[in-house]
Write a structure and sequence with these properties.
two-stranded antiparallel ribbon, mainly alpha, 2 strands, 13 helices, single chain, disordered C terminus
Length: about 280
């Protein structure tokens, strides 16, 4: 297909008012529950990374559930992105910390992964989704670590903070929620972005823990990634296509992850038997 028939997903936006009208029209059709379940299965089929992440969180929670409290504590501390672990084995803890959670069953994380994160993966594709989530998790963790190191060096916080437990997927999820603002069009984008800033800003104002700072920075990172991706998609990629059409345009559907201009209407019409377009990433 010609390069002009493809468009980066970062510039493929939706109008919420139009989507709401489609949902209402869809809801007036018969067999709503059956079609809703079929549409949700279609959504999950396009979000393997979100499902795998949710399943991994369940497995790690189940692992902790079958061990003693002392062993749980040692395991969580070994995977935590505190200063001590980051100094000794930064790569391992940056990866491992994203797949463990403290406390009870991670209902909220799994629910978000199987809804908002799945929608984001269907929009961006698995590779872009992983890059955004990983960037939010890693960058926010490192920013917090630098802040803690500075405060410890200035004797503003106790030394025990350097060995505190800090695990979970929330930094990556927060960054992806911020990036989702660029999926929306018009005032909805600004309302979504403002809502995230108010939510995480209020949590930071009330708690002021290093985790609260991490969440807020992760949201800013998500906005930065999304904004940069939109600029690249709107200005840089068109220039590259015009300057090297054979290299980029002729292989757009294989290597660069670009997707067609047209997309299914939110997955709802997929329940009638139409299969979503298969994308390679």
């Amino acid at each position: 297909m010609a390069a002009s028939t493809y468009q980066s997903p970062w510039v493929r936006t939706i109008d919420l008012a139009q989507q709401w009208r489609r949902i209402r029209a869809w809801g007036r059709q018969p067999q709503r529950l059956r079609r809703l379940l079929a549409a949700y299965r279609t959504l999950l089929a396009a979000a393997p990374a979100s499902i795998a992440y949710a399943f991994t969180l369940f497995v790690t929670w189940w692992t902790l559930r079958g061990t003693s409290d002392a062993f749980d504590r040692r395991l969580i501390l070994s995977a935590s992105t505190n200063l001590r672990n980051l100094q000794h084995d930064p790569i391992q803890v940056l990866v491992a910390s994203a797949f463990w959670t403290e406390g009870g069953f991670p209902w909220s994380e799994i629910l978000i992964l199987l809804t908002f994160m799945a929608l984001a993966e269907r929009w961006l594709g698995s590779l872009r989704w992983i890059l955004v989530v990983a960037s939010g998790h890693i960058c926010a963790t490192l920013i917090v670590a630098v802040g803690i190191a500075h405060k410890v060096d200035k004797h503003l916080i106790p030394l025990r903070v350097t060995v505190a437990a800090d695990v979970g997927p929330s930094y990556g999820i927060s960054a992806m929620l911020a990036a989702l603002a660029f999926r929306l069009r018009g005032p909805a984008r600004w309302i979504w972005a403002a809502g995230l800033l108010l939510f995480y800003g209020a949590a930071l104002w009330q708690g002021r823990t290093f985790t609260d700072y991490g969440h807020f920075f992760a949201v800013l990172i998500g906005f930065l990634i999304g904004g940069a991706a939109v600029v690249v998609s709107r200005r840089v990629l068109p220039l590259l296509r015009r300057s090297a059409p054979d290299r980029i345009g002729g292989r757009a559907g294989v290597d660069d992850g670009l997707v067609p201009l047209e997309e299914p209407d939110g997955g709802l019409d997929q329940a009638r038997g139409d299969r979503p377009e298969h994308r390679h990433h």
